[in-house]
Structures are given as structure tokens and as C-alpha cells.
Input
Amino acid sequence: MNDKTIVAISTPNGLGSVGILRLSGEKSCEISNTLFASFAKLAVTDFEPNKLYLGKMTAGIVSDKCLVVYFKAPRSFTGEDVVEFQCHGGRVVLEALLKSAVKLGARPALNGEFSRRAYLNGKMDLSNVEGMADLINAESEASSKLAFSLFSGGITHKITSLQEELETAIAYVEAAFDYPEEDVPAMDVPEVRIVLEKQISALSALIDTYKTGKNIKEGISVAILGKPNVGKSSLLNAILGEERAIVTDIAGTTRDVLSCRYSYRSVNFELFDTAGIRASSDKIEMIGVDRARKIFDLADVVIATFDSSRPLDNEDKEILEKLQGKNCIIAINKADISSKISLNLPTEYPIITLSAKTQDGIIDLKEKLYELSNVEKLISSESLVLTNERHFVSLSEALEHLKTALEILPIMPADCIILDIRQAWEKYGELTGTTASEHIVDTIFMKLCLGK
Ligand SMILES: Nc1nc2c(ncn2[C@@H]2O[C@H](COP(=O)(O)OP(=O)(O)O)[C@@H](O)[C@H]2O)c(=O)[nH]1
Ligand SMILES: [Mg+2]
Output
């Protein structure tokens, strides 16, 4: 328990109809009582918890008519006594209130300090805190859904049950320590093997969700690729529905990489327009081509673009060769003019004929991108999806330990096997925080906003 009462403005800086100031700690009521006179003529300490009281707040020469609510420890966000003022949302009112609360003995809170207290008081575990931060930062409905699942304990339940299950395996292995004279040659008892195999399969499935989970959270990167003048920049503009990229009939117009975000069916996409890939003697253009190649390597999905009014040439074919193994859509642009392309295009990729000029086929392209993102399957199922790199790393390490334990199970003594099983157990604990280092904990809370 931290004995110092902390205070912060919890609403964003700027004008708003309502602004919230929050206090947490032993002196919350006492401080609030000096600043607030309820029309019910009740002291804050006598407020019925969780109920709003109307009254007058006075902080120096600043006054406001506001609502105050008292959350009594331990039934509050932080687990301590919490008082919240709901004032009018101008900065002067809130800052005067903050200043007065500090004069009365509160300390301005650090970033995420309320949440840190909630964590220390067992109100949330680390993964819940990360889910809460993701929910605040969510940029699409799909990512908010995954954030809420994390916040409300999706991972916590899973990890807790994995840890409990592993504890039974640990008990079996430890039992072997007690009977060394019986010379248990190896620990390959079916109970341990079953737990390890089950966990390896569950973890592998969970880890497999990470790529899509990360894409949902951070946006799916889509690179538009093709030789010069096929209409890549026009396609970017058509997808965005606005003129963002410069379009001309001069080959080599786009030199740098242009990136723009758009949202489709509650998923965020980051679209990259690149320089047309071709050999050129222009130094600047070649830097652009180099960047285009890098984007191509990193992108989750590539739109390989071709001009339907011209036959495929060697530059097109070179691009087609690069597509192997890529998550890719072939866009045949300029469908509004007569088709001259004698298409010998690979059939393993979806092909969409469209016109960036008339917008024909753009919706089909967006729909296909959505489909390729794999989001629908994950979002509609209630199964867990990993979105957090920290979780991904810890679980991948846990998986390695479990695999090692399984491998050495028939051949090594119990005191060797137990090491890997215990390490896997500890890796699980990093997600919820029970075995997380102070550094991890600090980093998570520092990233939270002030007043949270
Ligand atoms: N008719 C027609 N012209 C297009 C279409 N898309 C692009 N263009 C034209 O093709 C030329 C090159 O377009 P741009 O988007 O700059 O190609 P980029 O070099 O691949 O980025 C421009 O003159 C565009 O107006 C289309 O769908 N139909
Ligand atoms: Mg261009």
C-alpha cells in the first residue's frame, strides 16, 4: 500500500463539457471535503459510496457546480479510497482544483500510477492493464474487441489454467525426487507426457494467432507494387477516396514511399504507394525503387498492379516472379480502356480487374484485402487472439521449454526435466505479472497516460 494520496486530471487536455479530477489514497475524502460542499450538506466521508453528489467546488477564487463520487476502499479502481470530481471541462477549473488538492497534501500522480496501485492491490494483473491501454489506444473496432478481451481477463484465465495444469506435472516430477533409490530411470510417466503434449499444442495454436492479432491492432500493411505508369498512385487515391498521391502520365513520378491509413469493415489498413519498380539511371528514382523493394518485403499483403491497356512486358514479368510465397492480389488496372493485356497471369493469386479512374472494382479489391487479412475468422470466433509482442515472446519461450522437457522426458533424470517445466511456468507468469521483472512492470505503467 502506498500511503501518499495522489491526484490527477483524468480527462484529456482541452475543452470538453465534462472534466474529471481523480484522487486516490487515504486522504482523498479529507482533501475533497475542503474543496467541495455538497448541496445535501453531507461530508464526503459520509457519502454513500458509488453515488453522485451535486454541490459547489471552491479552489482559490475558482468555483464550479459539480458532481462528486466516493469509491470506498477496497471497492474502487485502485483498491484505495478514491474520490472523483466531475466538473465543467475547461482547464482553468480543473487545474485550480488540482493545485488546491496538492496544497492540501496530495501529490500529482505519475503516468499510470492509479493503475499501478490497482495492480499492486490485486485489482488487475499485467495483461489486464495492457488490455486497458490497448482499449484506450484502439484505432479500429476490431482492435478494441481484442483489447477488451485482454482487459477483461481472456489471457489471465488461459494462463492461470495452463499454470495450474503445469503444477500437476511439476508435482509428478518432484515426486521422483523423493525416491531416488528406486532409480526411476526417466520421468516418462503418462501424466507428465499428456500435460506437456496438450500444452504444446494449445500454445502453438495461440502463438499462431499473433500475426493476425498484431495486424488487427496495428493495421494491415498493404504495398501497391508495379512498374511505372500502371496506375499505382491512382489506385491509392481510389482506395482512399481522395487525391493523396501525385498522378501524372510521366513514368517515374512517385519517388518516395507514401503511406496512408484507411479503415474498412472496422479494420485498419496502411497503404503504401511506391516508386514503379524498374531499372533507371536516375539516382533519386533508384533510391525510390530500393525503398519499394523493402516495403514489398515487409508488407502483409501486396497489390501487384498491371496495366490492362498494354501487353505484359519484361518489367511486368519480373514483378510476377517476385510474388512467389507472398500474400498477394493481382490488380489489372485501366479496365475502362480496351484490354490489350494477353494475360498469362499465375492463377494462385486472386485477380481483380478494376479501374482506378472510374472506381469500378475498387470495392471488390477492398473486400479481397479484408478477406486476406484473416480478421473475420478471428474476430467472429470467441477464441483467444494474441496481440501483444511481450506476450508473444514469453509464450514462445514457454513453448521452447515445454518442447525441450518433452524431448528429454524419456532420457533425462527428473531434476533436469523439472528445470524446463519450471521455466515454462515462470514464462507464463510474466504475462500476468506474478513473475515479471520490475523493469517490465515499470515499462508497462510508464506508457499509460496521466490520470489512468
Ligand atoms: N484510363 C485510365 N487511366 C488511368 C487509370 N489509372 C491510372 N491511369 C493513368 O495512368 C497514368 C499513370 O498513373 P499513376 O497513378 O501516376 O501511375 P503510377 O506510376 O503507377 O503511380 C496517369 O496518366 C493516370 O491518369 C485507369 O484506371 N484508367
Ligand atoms: Mg506513382
Notes: The chain has a mean pLDDT of 90.
